[in-house]
Amino acid sequence: MLEMQQKLMLSSYMELYDLIIPKDNLLRQIKELVDFDFIYEELVDKYCLDNGRNAISPIRMFKYLLLKTIYNLSDIDVVERSKYDMSFKFFLDMTPEEAVINPSSLTKFRKLRLKDTNLLDMLISKTVEIAIEKEIIKSKSIIVDATHTKSRYNSKTPQQALQEHSKALRRAVYETDESMKEQFPEKNTETSLEKEIEYCKQLMDVIKQNDFVSHYPKVAEKLNLLEETIADDLEHLKTSIDEDAKTGHKTADTSFFGYKTHLAMTEERIITAATITSGEKPDGKELTLLVRKSRDAGMDVKTVIGDKAYSGKDNIEAAQNDGYELISRLNSAVTQGTRTKEEEFIFNKDAGMYQCKAGHLAVRKYLDKRKSEKTNQNPRMKYFFDVEKCKCCPYREGCYKEGSKIKSYSETLLCDTHSEQAKFQETEYFKEKAKERYKIEAKNSELKHRHGYDVASSSGLIGMEMQGAMTIFAVNLKRIIKLMNA
Q1: Exposed e or buried b for every residue in 347-370, given b needs 16+ CB within 10 A?
Q2: What's the rounded Cα separation, in Å, for the pair 316 and 326?
Q3: Contacts of 50 (CB under 8 A, 6+ apart)
Q4: Which domain holds residue 324?
Q5: CA pair distance 365, 352, nearest whole angstrom
Q6: Structural domain contains residue 123
């Protein structure tokens, strides 16, 4: 029975764990902190309990994925390390002498068992539950922000992505044994993805035949990465770069190709909610969902702290209606009260420009005061778009007039529309609470630089959500343990 396979097998060597693994070992502390039975309860319906071969415990498979995230390892490398690393074996509920899984099982687990599972909300809710139980969360405030993750292909063609991986692998081999260059197959010179995949496979076969070189750590790491890329994303490689990734803007002059993770975090730096979107989506639109998810996870939200991206009229009204304070400074370019096509043109606070429905950013803006000076009306800001992009845009019908030399969008700047919020942001309470916002910037940095969240590990929005779920789960657990030990 699958349930019985969860239980730790008996072994005369079990006492080794108490001798070898110290009390302050991270994996020991996570194991003691978290009851992973919730994983079994969530996934048991995806297994056949009375037919076929005995399945590997879903808890063990999940823990393998957690180890991958904590230590930033490939499938092959995490399984390889679990052969000899006693802390890994202990965490995985293995006996010291027990054999490890086949690395391919992890791919099947991700695609078959975790499919259609709301892993992101489930894992965040579990860590919030633990934090509340341990009385770690004392504040009633959440800090909101968005961080970007570049697509693993970063606007390159699939063939270019494979070429980069194979180049890195060859370079690692040359540093170990330069003479192997003579054994390598000829590089693919055709603009054919199939030919490039074939070349990569031939290259890997040659390297694997040399036991010394292929087992050299630096080479093995690049070899596993190339092999896993082809195995995991072959279907995506054959169809597109990354269909779900989109171009977003960090500033008016810089952009990225990938995804956004919208986060809510307590003042104790525990992430309480997250949503993941393509890169062009605006930050402010996710606020109400982040508040609702945080409350569903068990947070008592009385205050929300964010930057100017969250100071839109809808968000201010939502805060008033839902009973929480919004610590977000007004921006005259965001908090407009009179403009048309609000759903089609959205303000991008990072670039300081509006972007259209297609995700194209305005190229310049102009403050028109002439009419306001004559009629005593509020001034208008005009934003101008690149007409060449408008001509071939899939949304041009009803938006761009054929033959027109300009495409602009205007807004009326209403400086007194949000007088209550304007007064609120001048209070000492508002200013003190606003100082807490820096904490989420540090959390974004931790996600990216310590856990590889700056680049997507696979293709597609589903893969990005899975990466986000595991990364946030690991980061939250580490934070809880740190606060418990403080």
Answers
A1: bbbbbebbbbebbbbbeebeeeee
A2: 7
A3: none
A4: 136-150+247-330+418-486
A5: 9
A6: no
- Looking at the structure, do residues 274 and 308 belong to the same domain, yes or no? yes
DSSP state of 361: B
Alpha-carbon distance of 146 to 164, in angstroms, equals 29
Strands (E), 253-339: 255-266, 271-278, 303-305, 325-327
> Are 304 and 317 contained in the same domain?
yes
Give the pairing type, strands 303-305 and 141-150. parallel
Residue 126 lies in a domain: no
Single-letter amino acid, residue 446: E
Chain-centroid distance of CA 187 in Å reads 34
Question: Do 452 and 48 meet the contact criterion of CB atoms below 8 Å apart?
Answer: no
In a domain, 319, yes or no: yes
* Nearest in space to 73 (alpha carbons), one of 39, 33, 106, 40: 106
Measured CA to CA, the distance from residue 290 to residue 313 in angstroms comes to: 17
Per-residue pLDDT of the chain (486 residues; tens, 9 = 90+): 444 444 545 677 788 888 999 999 999 999 999 999 999 888 877 655 555 445 688 899 999 999 999 998 889 999 999 999 999 999 999 998 999 999 989 988 887 778 777 899 999 999 999 999 999 999 999 999 999 999 876 556 667 778 888 898 999 999 988 889 889 999 988 877 788 888 999 999 999 999 888 888 888 888 888 887 676 555 554 445 577 888 887 776 777 889 999 999 999 999 999 999 999 888 999 999 999 999 999 999 999 999 988 988 789 889 999 999 999 988 655 444 455 666 778 888 788 888 988 888 999 988 876 655 554 555 678 899 999 889 888 888 888 888 888 898 887 665 444 568 888 888 999 999 999 999 999 999 999 998 989 988 887 888 899 999 999 999 999 999 999 998
Q: How many CB atoms lie within 10 A of CB 39?
A: 25
Tokens at residue 208, please? 């694997």
CA distance 333 to 308: 10
- C-alpha torsion sign, points 180, 181, 185, 187: positive
pTM of the entire structure? 0.73
User: Which of 169, 239, 179, 174 is CA-nearest to residue 201?
Assistant: 169
CB within 8 A of 382, min separation 6: which ones?
A: 365, 366, 367, 368, 408, 409, 410
Tokens of 468: 């986000």
Could you give the CA distance from residue 454 to residue 447 in angstroms, rounded to a whole number? 8
d(CA 335, CA 141): 23
Angstrom CA distances, 104 to 61, 200, 447, stand at 11, 19, 27
Residue 127, in any domain of the structure: no
| Domain tally, the chain | 4
Residue whose tokens read 């080479």: 219
